[in-house]
């Protein structure tokens, strides 16, 4: 997968050299290119922002540097090509992190993991001039995406989160392929359930024993216990998720929990 990132703070993305994603880059599974938006400015101060039309607090990112950045990374087609709906080459999916976007979910991460090329545009201040998004939509798929109901100072940390969620789903990135299917929110049996507690050695720690069932060797009972714990944790922290289960996802023994 190819990933391009445009930002005024390229230093944030040094984190992509570390751990799982660092290894994925070194082995060629991930091809990441980080670009400094200021490379597409032409004034002495390398200005990327200006005051908002209509007034109000804060600053808005100017359309010109963004337009040139997107043109350079994903060039507009010159000769329209009927076979590809008017474009002669491949285009990335443009992803814009913003608290006013659609929610980022495990399902969206899985869809992004199936794409060959993602382009992340990190806004700062009050956001990017909206015409940049409108114009980009005429030549590539564009998603405005939010991590949740809170406000970050800019898109950089949100993009790191999304790249980690997507990157670990790419074939060959995780050591043990099983570790994806048991995740909270993984499609299948665990869909819309939070994972329950986990334990390792020693068997007793500070007078606290590991639950007996996990030492029993009864795989059926262990699976049942894990599901019960997941249901309990979901009811406690995310009762909103249980309505999904109520629509056909609960068995008779679940209902007893
Ligand atoms: Cl994706 N960006 C910003 N700036 N703030 C956020 C967010 C994204 N998701 C939640 N808050």
TrEMBL record:
<comment type="subunit">
    <text>Homodimer.</text>
</comment>
<protein>
    <recommendedName>
        <fullName>tRNA (guanine-N(1)-)-methyltransferase</fullName>
        <ecNumber>2.1.1.228</ecNumber>
    </recommendedName>
</protein>
<dbReference type="Pfam" id="PF01746">
    <property type="entry name" value="tRNA_m1G_MT"/>
</dbReference>
<feature type="domain" description="tRNA methyltransferase TRMD/TRM10-type">
    <location>
        <begin position="1"/>
        <end position="242"/>
    </location>
</feature>
<comment type="similarity">
    <text>Belongs to the RNA methyltransferase TrmD family.</text>
</comment>
<keyword id="KW-0819">tRNA processing</keyword>
<dbReference type="InterPro" id="IPR002649">
    <property type="entry name" value="tRNA_m1G_MeTrfase_TrmD"/>
</dbReference>
<keyword id="KW-0489">Methyltransferase</keyword>
<dbReference type="InterPro" id="IPR029026">
    <property type="entry name" value="tRNA_m1G_MTases_N"/>
</dbReference>
<dbReference type="InterPro" id="IPR029028">
    <property type="entry name" value="Alpha/beta_knot_MTases"/>
</dbReference>
<comment type="function">
    <text>Specifically methylates guanosine-37 in various tRNAs.</text>
</comment>
<feature type="binding site">
    <location>
        <position position="123"/>
    </location>
    <ligand>
        <name>S-adenosyl-L-methionine</name>
    </ligand>
</feature>
<feature type="binding site">
    <location>
        <begin position="147"/>
        <end position="152"/>
    </location>
    <ligand>
        <name>S-adenosyl-L-methionine</name>
    </ligand>
</feature>
<dbReference type="InterPro" id="IPR023148">
    <property type="entry name" value="tRNA_m1G_MeTrfase_C_sf"/>
</dbReference>
<keyword id="KW-0963">Cytoplasm</keyword>
<dbReference type="InterPro" id="IPR016009">
    <property type="entry name" value="tRNA_MeTrfase_TRMD/TRM10"/>
</dbReference>
<keyword id="KW-0949">S-adenosyl-L-methionine</keyword>
<keyword id="KW-0808">Transferase</keyword>
